[in-house]
Amino acid sequence: MFGSPVAVPSYSPHLRRSGSRPVFLDLGSSELGKSTEEHYQHQLELNEMKSGSSPLHATAIMPSPIFLWRFKVLLFLIWGFGCCKIGWDSVMRMSADLRDLFLYEAFLYYNPLLLVTLMVWLWGVNLWVFAQSTINYTKIFDLDQDHLSHREIWKCATWMTIIVPTSMTAYLYLYSHGEVSLAASQPVLLYAAVMMILIFPFEIFYLSSRYFFLRTLWRIILPLQAITFSDFFLADILTSMAKVLSDLERSVCRMVNRQVATIAWFEADSVCGSHSITIPLVLVFPYMCRFFQCLRQYKDTKEKTALLNALKYSTAVPVIFLSALKYHVFPDRWTNIYRPLWLLSSVINSLYSFYWDVTRDWDLSGFSRIFKFSKPHICSSLLYGRSWIYFWAIGSNLILRCTWTYKLSAHLRHNYMTVFTIMALEILRRFQWIFFRVENEWNKMMMKTNMELSMSDIPKEEEKLLGSTNHTV
Questions:
Q1: Under 8 Å CB-to-CB from 389, ≥6 apart: which residues?
Q2: Is 133 helix (H, G, I), strand (E, B) or coil?
Q3: φ, ψ dihedrals at 133, nearest 5°
Q4: DSSP three-state, residue 62
Q5: Percentages helix, strand, coil for the chain, rounded to the nearest 5?
Q6: CA angle 266, 270, 271 (to 5 degrees)
Q7: pLDDT single digits (tens) 165-176
Q8: 338-353: average pLDDT
Q9: Which region holds residue 95: left if phi is over 0, alpha if psi is between -120 and 50, else beta?
Q10: How far is the C-alpha of 284 from the C-alpha of 281, rounded, in Å?
Q11: The model's pTM
Q12: Structure confidence by residue, pLDDT tens digits, 195-243
């Protein structure tokens, strides 16, 4: 009774899957166990001859996900070290008087894409936090079922993190070794590849998400229809990327005019020079798009807050154009007239934008919540109901709103590393702004839904009268 093999039921959780060899429990003698083992080995050999391989062997040769992740991280670190080493050696090969000018030009081509990559990484973090909380961001942005999750966003950001610095390293290496024509082709190929991926009309590279992004951009440029949350949300992000758009325009201008790797930007009278009138025009463009969106909202809703919001975006126009006047007026007129006006307009723009962020976009009249997570999570204990988060958000927003004026002012943009740092900090400020703005929008939607439900539960006065049996005429 105890020596016979016992068959495991088919519903046993220890079975691997259907089609695999049966499992027996040996409760008897060693001789029977030995014969059973030989029988197993014979059956295994027959299966290998029939199918060519065993499911057990196929599973055994597959590396674990943890091993693959560590291997990818190791390759990434090796690649990063290699790019830094090659780039540093290439820069050190140049003469000291040429080095700064060339690095400025290199940053002109690549810092826009590096900052866009940073924004994509942070947007993935935003989506991850929203997925952990009770905020239904797909409903807020009116996304379809094929929208990108934070995992797909991070995958795109990873490839951007690899491709952009690799192209920049190749640009530095080729230029320092005398291959100027090949070096000039690196940013051109990179920009062409990015444009082709955006407009590629085939079902690869997340076609629906790319076209949703392009349609939203078109609606921002021409606000001829009712403004959705996605429209003005992306337009607000573009105001933080104004300097990125300006550098993109200068880069494309230099590529079209064959000025790549020529350091011609230093010439004030060049087509794509640093004193070009196109620079303030591109800087002010996203603010004007947002301005006309507010006017369209007022036309549709007749709410006066839309006009006040439009006024906020209009305060950026004097900051940009008064700063640009330094290159087109006499120095004494700039010092005595235009510089004080620029300082005044900068203060007004910074304080007005800060006030609107806190009171309108975030609605932080009372510190009561930041996120309500749907399940216990490390973020729930770190964020929910902590008042210091609000003080940090308000204080950092005020400081970065003031430093943002540095980026908008053309006459202050001499140190490219300082400008790059301020631009990165502005992207971090916008990343922080997104949390509060989306949460505030979700709270408004829930409040409106609850109000509609409560109103539908209240019977009409006529129904009360008709349904009553004890009323008198």
A1: 370, 383
A2: strand
A3: -95, -175
A4: coil
A5: 75, 0, 25
A6: 130
A7: 999 999 999 998
A8: 92
A9: beta
A10: 5
A11: 0.81
A12: 999 999 988 889 999 999 999 999 999 988 899 999 999 999 999 999 8
